[in-house]
Amino acid sequence: MRALIGNVEGKGRIYRLDPRAKIISAAALSIICLHSTVPFLFLAGTLSLAVCALARIEARRLLRASKPALPFIAIVFLLHAFSMTGSHLVAFKLGAVRITTEGLLQGGLLAWRFALLLLAGFLLFMTTGPALLTSGLERLLRPMKLVGVSSQDLALMVSLALRFIPVLQEEMETLRDAQAARGARLATGSIAARVRALSGLALPLSFAVFRRCDQLVEAMHARAYDGGPRTDLRELALTREDWVVIIAAGLAVAGSFLV
Amino acid sequence: MILIEDLSHRYEGSLLQALDGLSLCLGEGEYVALIGPNGCGKTTLVKHLNGLLMPTNGTVSVDGIRTSDKGRLAEIRSRVGMIFQNPDHQIVGMTVEDDVAFGPGNLRLPSGEIRERVGRALSAMGLAGYQERHPHSLSGGEKQLLALAGVLAMDPHYVVLDEPTSSLDPASGARVLAMVRGLKERGITIIHVTHHMEEVIGAGRIIVMDKGRIVADDTPSAVFGRAEWLKSLGLAPPQMAELAWLLRRRGVDIGTPLHTLEETADAISALARAAHACRRGEGEA
After folding, report:
1. From the candidates A128, A160, A171, A223, which should be mutated to test the interface with B, based on the most B CB atoms within 10 A?
2. Residues B97 and B218 both lie in one domain
3. Mean pLDDT across the stretch A43-60?
C-alpha cells in the first residue's frame, strides 16, 4: 500500500492527463478484464503494457508492487487447473490429482484477468498523485449529491485516511515498543501467543485513534471547516486529449460487450 | 480587538469553573504571552477566542463579532488563526500545498486565489519548494511551520499559539519562534501560550493565569521581577531573572530588567570591573 500510494515520480503525457480521464480508463480496463473474451483481453493487455512503457514504469517496479497479490493469483490458477471437469482434451494423472489441459487454460486465463486488473490499478496509482486522485474522484462523484451524499466529504475522508496511514503506523510502533518494554512478547513465542499479545494492542490503539480524531476535528474547525461546500486548490479542466482517452475507454467497454 | 467580558466556562460534567469571570482586551498588533501552571485555564481561554468553545457565561467578541454568532464563525476563524501544540494533530492535507489550501478552501475562495495565497504563505515560512512534499516526511519544526503557513493563508489578524514549541527540539523551536516574531512585523496580533518564559521575553505584555483567573497582566520586566511569586505558582521564571533576584537577595543589585543571557553577562562584568577598579584604587592609596 505504502509502496503504491504517493510515489509518483515521473513526468510526461500520461502523468499530465486529467485524473478523471485516468480513473475512467482504469475503470474501463477493469470491466474489460473481468468479462471480455480472449482476443479482447489480449488487446487490453498489450495496450496496458504499452501505456506502462510510455509512462516509463519499469517491470521491476510492477513486480515489486504486485508481490503481495502473487500467492492469490497462484491459488486461483491452481484451483482451476486441478478442479476443472468436463470434456478433457488431454488428461494427466498425478496420483489422485488430475490435471487437464482445459483446466490449465482456464486457470491461466483467470490468472491473466486478475493480473490485468492489478495492472489497471497500478497504472492509475503510479501515474497519479493521491491529491489529484481524490480531486478527480470528488468531481466524478458529484452527481451523488442527488442521493444526498456529498462527494467533497467523501474526498476529504479519503485524503484524511491517506494522510493518517503513516501517522497511525507510528502510533502502533510506539505502543508496541511501550508494551515490549514492559515485557510483552510480540515477536517471539507460538503464533497463538503472538496473536494474543497483538490483540492487547488493539484497545490502546483505538483509544489513541479516537483521541487523535478529536484533536483533528478541533484543528479542522479552527481552520473554518464547517462541513459545507469548499473550494479546491486545483482547477481541473478536460483537454482534447483527455476527451479522446475518455471516449476511447467508453468505446472499448461498449465494444467488449458487443464482440 | 478581541474583547472578553466576564467570561466563565465550565466543562460539561465538571464542578470546577475552568474560567472564572475573566475580562480581557487584546489590541491590534500586540504580542501577548499567556502563562500559568497546567490546568489554569490557558487552553480553555484561547479556545474561546475563535469559537472552538462557547462561554458558559459572559461574551467574547472579535473585531466586534460575537463568537456566539454561529453564522459568522467562519469569518471569526479566518481572523483568529490557531496553532496547536502538536503539529501532527493539525495537518490535514496529503501534501504540503493541499494542507495550506485547506483553510482558504473552507473560505470558498476561487482556485486561482488559493494557489496565490498558498505560494505566499509557504515562502513567508521558508517552505517554498516544499509544495509536493508529504507532511510525514517533514521534520517537527517544518511541520509546525507548515501549520503556521496554513493559518497565514487565511490572512488572519490574530494568531493564537498554544505551546507551539513543546514538541520540538531547541533548534527547531528557535526557528519557529523567529517566524512567530516575524508575524508581528506583518501587524498580526500574537497570543502565545507557553510554559517557557524565556520564549516570551520579547513579548510586550504578559498575562499570568491561575485557577481560571488572571492574576497578573503587565510588562515582562514587571512580571519576571516577581520571581518568588512566580515560583509559588509553580512556574519557572527566566533563569536570568531568577539569578538577578538571587543576587539581589544577597545584597548585589545588578539592575532590572535583565532577562537575556547577554544583558546579564554585561551587567555582571560591569559590576566586576567596577569592583576591580575600586580595589586597585584602595591599593594605591
Report:
1. A223
2. yes
3. 86
Q: Are A221 and B77 in contact (CB under 8 A)?
A: yes
Cβ–Cβ below 8 Å for B74 and A234: no
Q: Contact A122/A4 with Cβ under 8 angstroms?
A: yes
**Angstrom distance (rounded) from CA A5 to CA A81:** 34
Residue A207 lies in a domain: yes
Mutate to test the interface with A, among B89, B132, B143, B144 (most CBs of A within 10 A): B89
C-alpha B71: how far from chain center: 28
Same domain, A20 and A85: yes
Interface pTM (ipTM) of the complex?
0.86
pLDDT value of residue B190 = 96
Are B221 and B249 within one domain?
no
Is B101–A233 a contact, with Cβ atoms under 8 angstroms apart? yes
CA nearest neighbour of B18 among B209, B194, B271 = B209
Residues B204 and B272 both lie in one domain: no
B165 and B278 inside one domain = no
Q: What's the pLDDT tens digit per position in A151-179?
A: 888 888 888 888 888 888 888 888 888 88
Same domain, A27 and A65: yes
Could B150 and A231 be called an inter-chain contact, meaning their C-beta atoms sit closer than 8 Å?
no
A131: closest chain B residue by CA: B94
State pTM to two decimals. 0.81
Structural domain range at position A158 = 151-222
DSSP-derived secondary structure for B156-225: -SEEEEESTTTTS-HHHHHHHHHHHHHHHHTT-EEEEE-S-GGGGTT-SEEEEEETTEEEEEE-HHHHHT
Q: For the segment B160-215, what is each residue's pLDDT rounded down to a tens digit? A: 999 999 888 989 999 999 999 999 888 999 999 998 888 888 889 999 999 999 99
Establish if B160 belongs to a structural domain: yes
Q: In terms of residue numbers, what domain contains B124?
A: 2-228
Residue A168 domain-assigned?
A: yes
**Are residues A220 and B92, on separate chains, in Cβ contact within 8 Å?**
yes
Distance from CA of B107 to the nearest CA of A (A): 7
Q: Tell me whether residue A184 is in a domain.
A: yes
More confident residue, A102 or B59: B59
Per-residue pLDDT band for A6 (boundaries 50, 70, 90) equals very low
What is the rounded CA–CA span in Å between residue B113 and residue A233?
Answer: 9
Same domain, B216 and B249: no
Contact A159 B93 (CB under 8 A): yes
A237 contacts chain B (CB < 8 A): no
In angstroms, how far apart are the furthest CA atoms of chain A? 71
According to the model, what pLDDT value does residue B197 have?
Answer: 85
Looking at the domain assignment, is residue A145 inside a domain?
A: no
Tell me, yes or no, whether A17 and A86 share the same domain: yes
Q: Between B35 and B253, whose confidence is greater?
A: B35
Do A215 and A243 lie in one domain? The reply is no
Residues of chain A in contact with residue B164, where contact means CB-CB under 8 angstroms, are none
Q: Do B84 and A212 touch (CB under 8 A)?
A: no
The predicted model gives B142-161 an average pLDDT of 95
